[in-house]
Amino acid sequence: MKRTLILAVPFLFAAPAVQADAALAALVDKAIAASFPAGEGQDLSRLVQDDTLKTCSQMRNNPTEKQAAAILEREAKNMKHPEGGKLLGDWKKGEKLFAAGFGMRIGAIEPDKADKQKGGNGGNCYACHAADPKEVAAGTVGPSLTGYGKLRGGGDDIVKYTYEKIYNAQAFTACSNMPRIGHNGILKPEQIADVTAYLISPESPVNK
């Protein structure tokens, strides 16, 4: 009897602890939502987590093997290609998109022009990656992409991998730190094809 009582004690505290965590999470969500009032220049859709982001948040980006497999399977189904299936676009356009720093920012100091809106605002790629060796203002959160095409070549398999990794990195690495550039509408499929060309084309400064 004593053993049974001892084993039961932890369970007496489990339910209140879970309820407290849920209440705290709800309070945090409410505070975040209140910090970004609706209005011109705001994109409140990114405040709502889908199943993948919920899992990654709950697991502190360290999902179980089963959770990781579920994420990879789910995100692979979200992949979209440009009309016509051409994954290699115009590297000169890709160069501009790679460098454009608007990304998926919430809010604006002043009203944004149409070309700065979601889907036409650039990828803010230099925030995390080096590419053109002449660009010194590059982040180091992600790996350097300088010489990307020179090192990997431009075969169909590399082009497909590069395009899809940019479109949705979660389809390759569960709880990746890389934003889902295409899935979240930061860039359109045709624009991602341009960025892919910027990384792979022998004429691109990335590969000089």
Write a concise synopsis of the structure shown.
The protein has 208 residues and is mostly helical. Helices cover 44% and strands 0% of the residues.
Provide the succession of SSEs: HHHHHHH
The share of residues in extended strands comes to under 5%
Q: Count up the domains.
A: 2
Question: Could you list the spans in which at least 5 consecutive residues all have pLDDT below 50?
Answer: 1-13
Q: How many strands, what sense, and barrel or not for the largest sheet? A: none
The CATH architecture of the largest domain:
Orthogonal Bundle
Q: Could you characterize the architecture of this molecule?
A:
It is a single chain. With 208 residues, the protein is mostly helical. The chain folds into two domains: 1-35; 39-208, Cytochrome c-like domain (Cytochrome Bc1 Complex, Chain D, domain 2). The protein has helices spanning 2-35, 51-58, 65-76, 91-99, 148-152, 156-167, 189-200. Helix 4 packs across helix 7 and helix 6 (156-167) crosses helix 7 (189-200). It is globular.
Keywords:
208 residues; mainly alpha; Cytochrome Bc1 Complex, Chain D, domain 2; 2 domains; 7 helices; 44% helix; disordered N terminus
Task: Summarize the helices and strands and which ones pair or pack.
Layout: H1 2-35, H2 51-58, H3 65-76, H4 91-99, H5 148-152, H6 156-167, H7 189-200
